[in-house]
Design brief:
The chain is of the alpha+beta class and about 325 residues long. Helix content is about 70%, strand content about 10%. Helix 9 packs antiparallel against helix 10. The chain is rod-shaped and about 125 Å long. This is Diguanylate cyclase DosC.
Length: about 325
């Protein structure tokens, strides 16, 4: 049988590729004449190995490489199987045409059929493993994409939540954040038997700044006051803008006495340095540790205390509005 195949090897290879290149898809995959010659040479070697090469580990690895190469160059399994079946039919017909004993020819054909099927099983094993690897890679990419997308969404959600809690002008917490944060803070203070002080701040004669110098100047005053409040605060203190010219500072672990003696002087000194013509009225109230009030009750007391102090800083009706120079931030 080896002699029969060897004598007709070139004819078999030529016929195989003549048949293959009739397909536009195959012709596109082959590309050029140089590639075609290399493929024809490889096919000659493959056919020769079918009848001469010992089936061992090297043989199996070579078949696996065949599958890998065909997968890489884009030959789909259906196209590969069709080509192998055509080659197998050509080899079997050659055996039957040139062997006189039909029973012997059929026996050899059956052996060849099983051998080629054996080869195909290894080639397809490579196809399947390669496709599974690709699926795994794509699955991992999908998981990574989903994780990245979730991280982006989480970051953007956090950013939006933070923006929703901040006053856009002063970058202090807003009234919504005050309502969200303080109830929990007061509850924790009571559990830990700690005092909480609330400082209520109002800018004196703020309407004069807006009326005489415009809203831009009024905004400048609000920014300066907020910077002073923030700069004088501790890391644990929370600063809020709760109204047009009204601010609140919540000070956990702080008494009214400490806020009056320490915090308020720091604020007023800082404000005098930055804008001496701007003054504030301040009220302070305390909750705990002997008598715990709700946040709203403590805030109401601080507000009342602020208004008790307010008249001392209000300008007489006949007094001219304060003259101030706009300070841009």
């Amino acid at each position: 049988m080896k002699g029969v195949i060897t004598r007709h090897l070139d004819l078999i290879v030529d016929d195989f590729y003549t048949h293959q290149t009739r397909s536009p898809d195959v012709e596109t995959l082959i590309g050029d004449a140089g590639t075609l010659q290399r493929l024809m040479s490889a096919l000659r070697q493959y056919i020769a190995d079918l009848f001469t090469k010992e089936i061992n580990l090297d043989y199996v690895e070579h078949r696996l490489r065949i599958g890998l190469v065909h997968k890489r160059i884009g030959v789909d399994p259906k196209m590969y199987l069709s080509s192998v079946n055509y080659l197998k039919a050509k080899l079997i017909s050659t055996i039957h045409d040139h062997l006189e004993d039909p029973e012997y020819a059929q026996m050899l054909s059956d052996i060849l059929d099983r051998l080629i099927d054996f080869d195909v099983s290894y080639v397809f094993d490579t196809y399947i493993k390669s496709m599974m690897n690709e699926i795994e890679v794509e699955k991992n990419k999908s998981f990574q994409y989903v994780n990245d997308l979730e991280s982006i969404v989480q970051e953007r959600t956090k950013s939006l939540e933070k923006m929703a809690r901040l006053d856009p002008l002063t970058n202090l917490y807003n009234k919504r954040a005050f309502e969200e944060f303080t109830s929990k803070l007061f509850s924790e203070a009571q559990q830990q038997n700690d005092p909480v002080a609330i400082v209520y701040i109002d800018v004196n004669d703020f309407k004069l700044f807006n009326d005489q110098f415009g809203h831009e100047e009024g905004d400048s005053v609000l920014i300066i006051v907020s910077d002073c409040l923030r700069g004088a605060s501790r890391n644990v203190d929370l600063c809020f803008r709760v109204g047009g010219d009204e601010f609140v500072v919540v000070m956990p672990g702080c008494t009214k006495e400490s806020a009056v003696k320490n915090y308020i002087p720091r604020v007023t000194e800082s404000l005098a340095t930055m804008r001496s013509e701007v003054s504030i009225s301040v009220g302070v109230a305390q909750s705990g540790p002997k008598n715990y009030l709700s946040c709203q009750d403590t805030l109401a007391r601080a507000d009342k205390d602020m208004y008790l102090n307010k008249p001392r800083h209000r300008a007489p009706e006949t007094e001219q509005p304060l003259k101030c120079v706009a300070l841009k931030k």
